[in-house]
Structures are given as C-alpha cells and as structure tokens.
Design a protein that fits this description.
Number of helices: 10
CATH architecture of the largest domain: 2-Layer Sandwich
Strand order of the largest sheet: 12-11-7-10-9-8-15
Structural class: alpha/beta
Order of helices and strands: EHEHEHEHEHEHEHHEEEEEEEHHE
Shape: globular
Helix content: 25-40%
CATH topology of the largest domain: Dihydrodipicolinate Reductase, domain 2
CATH class of the largest domain: Alpha Beta
Number of strands: 15
Radius of gyration: 20 Å
Length: about 325
C-alpha cells in the first residue's frame, strides 16, 4: 500500500486529487494537513482519513509522498519542508509565482534527493496526446504559428489576492499552455509580449482577469494565447484548453475537454456537459504514485514547472513595462 498525504485544500484541485487517491487500488490517502484546521478537518471527514494538526508531525509520519495544493505563494515553504522530510512531492501549478521561488524549490528537492513533479494534468488528455503524436509524425511538416486559449470561471477567494496568488487569470491560465507547447514541440520559449485587462468583473478585485500574450518559440514559431476568467457561473463547465497549430502541411485543431455530450435539461432549466472521456487528473495522480513507488521523476518535473513560471513571470514584466521580454 502506497501512503500519500495532502498538504492544504486551499486549491480547488485538491478535492479531485483526493478522490483519485481514494479510487486507485493499492493507494491510501493516509493523512491530511492544512494550515486552515477547520477546512482540513472537514476534508479529512469527507475523504475518511486522518487530519494531522501539526505539519512536522504530518511529515514525520510514514507517508511516502505528498500532494501540495495550497495557495501559490505557500508552495515554496511546504515543498521545502516536505523535501527535508524526504517525501516525494507533487506540487500544484504554478510551481511558484516567481522564478526565485521556483528555482529554490527545484534546488532544495535536488539536494534532498527527492522527486518533484508539477501538476500538469493536460499532458494526460487523450486529444492532446493524439495531437502531439500527429505533430511528431512529421506528416504536417514545420509548425509556423499556434493560437491558444485557456478560459475559465473566476475561482474567487485567494486567487485574486496578489500576496497569495502572485497574479490573476494570466498566472492561473498561462502555465498549462506553456507546458503543453514545450512538451508537444520539444522547443523553448524565447520572448513574450503581454497586455493585461481587469474589466470582465468590473475591476472588483486587484488582479488581472484577462491576459493577451504574444510569444515566440525556438525556430521562430509565433504563439498567440488568451488567458481569462471569462466564463460566467452559468457556463456548463469551468472553462477550456484549445490549441490550433498552423503547419506547413495543414491545420491541427484540438479541444482538450471536448469529450462530452451537451445536455439540455428542461426539468432543471439548465444546459450542462456530461463527460464521457478520460480523466486527466486520475492519470496525473497515478503517474505520481508510480513515481513514488519507483523513486523516479514524474512525467512533468519540477524543471517543467520552473520553465512555465519563467514565461509567466516574464509576461507580467512585459505588461508592466510595455515591452517584449526575452526569456
């Protein structure tokens, strides 16, 4: 039995990861620690596991790995504490809001000799895996340009508190796309120009709710990306991840979350999406459990998380200065 613990339920993804751990055979969600004790106790009760009030006691237990799903600015302290306790780690994205913190996280885990993964579940989406296979086949030739979106609903709470999140929608919804393109193409980003907006929610919070990014990758590939919290509460799902590749031999268009049926429910007066496809979160968590057992790296490593943070931090610098920033 592989024993895994979760540190903090501040992030919405924690509930999904906990459900995945409970569903996987040979895996135990052995303990929860949360700096918000009432939240931690509630989640421990919901997932029928133990709540440990003291972080040091939690990390001194016989859990073999931890999933960290705290506020972004708290990732560094929690990851480094877990690394000192010799636990394998899966950290929610972004790995950190700044390159300084992300580099410290990676260095600390490397020195401690523990595995560090960044939670990028989109790598396990079947449509994106198929698109990567098509790109790598050579059938479509060179990639010239890419248009991307990662829209979502406003999560509320700490996500719009710069001290806890490090940024708004652009922080939240750029790292997925950056990681996907690095993974799919095997190329790095060279520069970014970014404009930020804060008009979708009537400037009701201090962070951006919209980012328009124009990036260049190695080989001169031009990338346009829109990140936003533009989906209303009544929208059938949280958001999207879409990519369109303009290639020498044609177009490849992919919608990562289109494995669904649209249901028009007159009884409840609502439209909803019923998913029929795979569960990327389940595959992500299983990959982490396998890494814990094998004492190896996850599919998406700490350095992948660092690279995504580097692009995102550069985007915010660009928006602040009005200049294109080299990465």
């Amino acid at each position: 039995m592989v024993k895994i613990g979760i540190m903090s339920f501040a992030h919405l993804h924690a509930n999904s990861y906990a459900a995945c751990l409970k569903a996987l055979p040979g895996v135990s969600l052995s303990a929860i620690w949360d700096d918000n004790a009432s939240r931690g106790k509630k989640m421990a009760k919901e997932f029928k596991t133990n709540f440990v009030k003291d972080m040091n006691e939690f990390l001194a237990s016989d859990i073999e790995g931890v999933i960290i799903t705290s506020e972004n600015s708290k990732h560094r302290a929690m990851v480094e504490a877990a690394a000192r306790a010799k636990k394998w780690i899966l950290c929610e994205k972004p790995l950190a809001p700044t390159m300084k913190d992300a580099q410290s996280i990676v260095t600390t885990c490397r020195k401690a000799g523990v595995g560090l993964g960044t939670a990028f579940p989109c790598r396990f989406s079947t449509p994106l895996i198929e698109a990567k296979s098509m790109l790598n086949s050579g059938k479509f030739g060179a990639v010239y340009a890419i248009t991307c979106t990662n829209h979502g609903q406003y999560p509320g709470g700490w996500f719009s508190d710069p001290a806890l999140s490090g940024g708004g929608a652009t922080m939240d919804h750029t790292v997925h796309v950056v990681d996907l393109l690095r993974w799919m193409l095997g190329k790095e980003f060279k520069s970014v120009y970014c404009e930020l907006g804060n008009q979708l929610h009537n400037k009701s919070f201090p962070t951006d709710d919209l980012g328009s990014l124009h990036l260049e990758m190695e080989g001169g590939i031009q990338v346009s990306h829109l990140a936003s919290w533009s989906r209303p509460k009544s929208f059938p799902t949280w958001g999207d991840v879409t990519l369109e590749f303009v290639c020498e031999g044609g177009l490849i268009t992919v919608d990562a979350f289109n494995q669904k049926v649209t249901v028009f429910d007159d009884g409840n007066q609502q439209v909803r999406y019923d998913a029929w496809g795979d569960n990327p979160d389940m595959a992500l968590v299983k990959n982490f459990v396998d890494a814990v057992q094998s004492r190896c790296d996850c599919a998406s490593t700490g350095m992948d998380g660092f690279a995504a943070t580097a692009v995102t931090e550069a985007a915010y610098r660009s928006a602040k200065t009005g200049r294109t920033i080299k990465i």
